[in-house]
Amino acid sequence: MGSWLRRRLPKSGSKTALLSGEQRTSYADLAERTERLANAFQRRGVARGDRVAYLGENHPAFFETFFACGLLGAIFVPLNTRLTAPELQFQLHDCGVSLLVHSAQLDTLAVAATDGTGVRTRLSVDKDPDAKVAGSHEAALGAAPADPIQEKVGLDDGAIILYTSGTTGKPKGALLTHGNITWNCINVLIDMELSRDDVALLISPLFHVASLDMGLLPMLLKGATIVIEEKFDPSRALALIQRHGVTTLNGVPTTFQMIAEHPDWPSADLSSLQKLTCGGSPVTGRVLEAYESRGIHFTSCYGMTETAPGVTMLPAERSLEKAGSAGLTHFFTQMRIVDPLGLTAGPGDVGEIQISGPNVMCEYWNRSDATRDAYADGVWFRSGDMGYGDDEGFLFVSDRLKDMIISGGENIYPAEVESAIAELEAVAAVAVIGVPDAKWGEVPRAVITVRSGASLTEDQVRAHLDRRLARYKVPKTVVFVSEMPRTASGKIRKADLRRQYAS
Question: What global pTM score does this model have?
Answer without folding.
Answer: 0.85
